[in-house]
Amino acid sequence: MGLFSSSKGAFRGAKGDLVLDGVRKTFGDFTAVDGIDLTIPRGSFFALLGPSGCGKTTTLRMIAGLEQPTEGRVMIGQTDLTGSRPYERPVNTVFQSYALFPHLSIRDNVAFGPKRRGVSDAAAQADSALELVQMGHLAGRKPAQLSGGQQQRVALARAIVNNPEVLLLDEPLGALDLKLRREMQVELKRIQDDVGLTFVHVTHDQEEAMTMADTVAVMNQGQIEQIGPPEALYDLPKTRFVAGFLGKSNMGKATVVGREGDQVVVEFAGTTATVPAARAPEGADEVWFGIRPEKVRIVTDQSGGHRDDVRVTVVDVSFTGVATEYIVTVPSGRSWTVYEQNMDVDPNPIRPGDTVWLEWDPAHSFAVPRSADDPDPAGDAAELESAVAS
Ligand code: ATP
């Protein structure tokens, strides 16, 4: 971008993709990060998403140099940063707590880093960074005179002014209320587009990760379960954990009973369904069948000849404005969810206790591997929800 001069530090000139090569971190006999291999393309907006305790902050801290990996390397381009001190790295972190100096003006807070490095036009650089986050007009104020969202922008400007190669964001919007969070998500994405820096964003909020990131890595128990663009992860989860963590999935404990052309035939909950072979694990016999709640239709009569359906009992109906959410029980006893957009007022609304049929287009179904010791996904969903909420 050339807006801000580069800063001191042994590796400040390092440029390129951020690479984690076999990175592991143990604390005593506990493994917090279990061998991560990752290449984050330069200039991309990358999200590390996972439940509390999965190892995302530890990963971020190893990129920042605040923790040293037990094994593996952290690199930017060809430059190995492993073992170097945080201030030597071309990496800055924005935390949830803004940690602004209360006695300094906003401009001086942002100019603090460049001044300390002896940059001659520190104040001008601070002003440019503040313009970028649309805070130029408040440069003379003190932090206490700003709202939470404004302080977060200043914290961002204070990191950007150092012109790092990589900007780390550790749950940066966690302290903001929901409306402001949504606004800041859009704003963060715009700023990242403008400055073109590599952003690595840690969050347990799947909506936040999907809204902003080009690429999302879903972490679970110190490992990356799946990585890809948000749309791809949502459309085709490869593990039961990802299917349940990124949005909601209806799951059925299924067995593969055959193959018809490019479709895999499965049996679950007393019904037979098909899954495109490309959307099922190759060669697996025991799988979880999956279908997203918005891909399912409720019909009161079985439309006939439609194999991909299941008879269910309605347990709960909630009107949420744009959609109605139905909770139903499938024959195996598992709860499924259906979202139906409220296009018309139904003169004969479906009510709890009704017996109905669910139908879906088999093209939207998917299957993920299942092992004998896999716990029940209904139980897991509750577990995941509590993990997300915590
Ligand atoms: P959260 O969203 O709650 O911040 P996280 O995914 O960022 O969670 P980490 O902070 O990376 O998780 O922690 C991963 C695991 O490593 C946790 O079980 C945590 O208790 C453990 N851990 C982290 N730091 C240390 C430490 N210094 N000593 C011992 N255990 C640690």
Describe what this molecule looks like in 3D.
With 390 residues, the protein is an alpha+beta fold. The chain is 24% helix and 33% strand. The protein folds into two domains: 18-231, Rossmann fold (3-Layer(aba) Sandwich); 248-389, Beta Barrel (OB fold (Dihydrolipoamide Acetyltransferase, E2P)), CATH 2.40.50. It has helices spanning 56-64, 106-116, 122-132, 148-160, 178-195, 206-212, 230-235, 240-245, 377-389, and strands spanning 18-27, 30-40, 45-49, 71-76, 79-80, 91-94, 166-170, 198-203, 215-220, 223-228, 250-260, 263-268, 271-276, 286-291, 296-299, 309-319, 323-329, 335-341, 355-360, 366-369. A six-stranded mixed beta sheet has the order 6-7-8-3-9-10, sandwiched between helices. β16 and β17 (323-329) form a beta hairpin. Residues 1-7 and 379-390 have low confidence and may be disordered. Residues 27, 30, 32, 50, 52-58, 204 line the site of adenosine-5'-triphosphate. Residues 368-390 are annotated as: Disordered. One of its GO terms (molecular function) is ATP binding.
